Description:
The chain is an alpha+beta fold. It contains 10 helices and 12 strands. Dinuclear copper ion (CUA) is lined by residues 136, 139, 175, 210, 212-214, 218, 221.
Amino acid sequence: MASGEAMRRRHPLLGVALLSALATAIGIAIVLSIDWFPSQASTAAKDIDELYYVLAVVSVPIFVLVMAVALYSVFAFRVRPGDMRDGEPIHGNTRLEIVWVTIPFIIVSILAAYGWVVLNDIEERKQDTLTVDVTGQQFAWSFEYPEQGKLQSNQLVLPKDRPVRFRVHTKDVLHDFWVPHFRLKTDAVPGLTTDIRVTPSRLGTYPVVCAELCGIGHATMRQSVRVIPAAQFDSWVDEQRQGKSDGGVAAAGGDKTAAGRQLFTDTGCDACHALADAEATGSVGPDLNDIAAAAARYGKRQSQSPTEYVKNSITKPNTFIVPGFREGLMPETYSEQLSEAEIDTLVEYLLGVGKEKDAQ
Ligand code: CUA
């Protein structure tokens, strides 16, 4: 007991150092035990996760050191009752200053070099790369495969193990193309094309998220990416082409309603409109549960049949705005994005299911 007391008097910081070492060990154990990331679905994911774990582990002792010095100072140098003296003037400590500049400089340089090596690996150009154009607009993503005869699609489908280069654009404001499972994220900037490379390495369906506050429908600007076996990719492309010419009816097993529902969701209509049949609850644009009655009413005013009215609302949305909604909210690009047959499928579907049931 006596010798412990003597030691404490000789080394007043020993206790602090021991406590700090304990706090560091606990901190690192906590950091490593948390599952920070979703599953790894691209070849870069492992390296990126390791980099983040290293960064997190390195920050623990730094955090503990700063907190230990701060807390120690608060207790050791606090003012005693009745002590009205000024603090002693301090004129610097060259040795200490050299240490606290040099050590962080070394740590930051090593981490920067490590980060650069990882980034360089991710951005490496690989052979047999598939190019996909990604376009963001309020409030949906659309995709084009320039090497597959400029196939336009509202779904992102990628072959497994084939390097992909995304060229990201936007038609309106800033969006941010993010696939958390790929550890891939890049801004879609008006007037610019941003590039990002990824090699999907795991089959499955993963969320595609917009990670930039882009307007009222931002939170609903979510789609998904499907990674399929490379051997199935060509037949998917053929199926999509077929869908362009028959409105997706064959792919839905001849069921027109199912084809329409699929198109409604794939095109991202559900982000802005409510429609019970498609389990859509968007409120940016008009509720489509009673579109049949609305189309009859508003169509009549413009001497259009309900079919013409709905078609017009999809392809030229700003020629008539439903009272209570703002002009320019609905993108004017669906006439390019969807084929004639797809628009027909969609119109027929909406008029078929968009009848508010009186019985309910
Ligand atoms: Cu697009 Cu948020």
